[in-house]
């Protein structure tokens, strides 16, 4: 449980003396827990979790959020963040609470043929704003996802023929590198807050920046478009279940995003799908080896075959 007195103390430099009310843990968050609370009636969010070698530190995540905000992207306002474990027991980040819906299936059911493409355009514009942000001087590391996910799979000591074929194809067909930008790293339905309080659905905020890094813009674009993140929507709505990939890319470029070559995007879509497959295999491994015994993790492992099917479908056109 979070010590409310300690929580008030870390907020004091920003807000002065405050009273903490209504502290409650929210659902979701695989690597870090999320808590909602009020500081003298101001609704806030606390994200907290142990440090690791995979996710950005809380101070780095906060710096990336502030740079994205300066570029105009819809992100929560950060009050304070620290990598120290001393005040609250683990590194933490505190930001403003933003009302809205994050569950992708609920969002999909609430959209119609007018609001769906409008929201797609807002997502594309937000991503263009993120990619225009200044990524220098805050400690972000440039990442090569192909190398990273090859290493992740090798460390598990297990693979599949489809995964190996995909890696070989990716290595042999890698497009020319593009200008490095600030990459969100997990831009997808489920990490977005959508506000339905007005007549038209509105993208209220882009959340969960723990995988942020410096990389290529197509990394974020492709991740939004893999089949897993359209949650059963037809292939005509391949971009997050909201619209076509062509419409998504067009809106991204209209919003000031970097030019996107479709063959290059296809390469990144193969990599993004492979990445999801490796993640599914990793989640199962956590269960299998006893690190985190969980029926949910075991079930996620069964989705490896889904990603193999998706990879074979994508590679069929090459």
Explain what you see:
Residues 23-240 form the Aminoglycoside phosphotransferase domain. It comes from Mycobacterium dioxanotrophicus. InterPro entries: ACAD10_11_N, AGP_Transferase, Aminoglycoside_PTrfase, Kinase-like_dom_sf. This is Acyl-CoA dehydrogenase. Pfam families: APH (PF01636). This protein has 318 residues and is an alpha+beta fold. The chain folds into 3 domains: 4-96, 2-Layer Sandwich (Phosphorylase Kinase, domain 1); 100-142 and 180-260, Aminoglycoside 3'-phosphotransferase, Chain: A, domain 2 (Alpha-Beta Complex); 144-178 and 263-318, no CATH class. The chain is built from 11 helices and 9 strands. A 5-stranded antiparallel β-sheet has the order 1-2-3-5-4, with helices on both faces. A hairpin with a 2-residue loop joins strand 2 (33-39) and strand 3. The longest helix has 27 residues, at 262-288. The chain starts with a helix and ends with a helix. The mean pLDDT is 94.
Low-confidence regions: none
Give the overall shape, derived from the CA principal axes.
Answer: globular
CATH homology-level superfamily of the largest domain? Aminoglycoside phosphotransferase (APH), C-terminal lobe
Overall helicity:
40-55%
**Number of DSSP helical runs:** 11
Q: Quickly name the level 1 CATH class of the largest domain.
A: Alpha Beta
Largest sheet: 5 strands, antiparallel
Key features?
318 residues, alpha+beta, Phosphorylase Kinase, domain 1, Aminoglycoside 3'-phosphotransferase, Chain: A, domain 2, 3 domains, 5-stranded antiparallel β-sheet, two-stranded antiparallel ribbon, 9 strands, globular
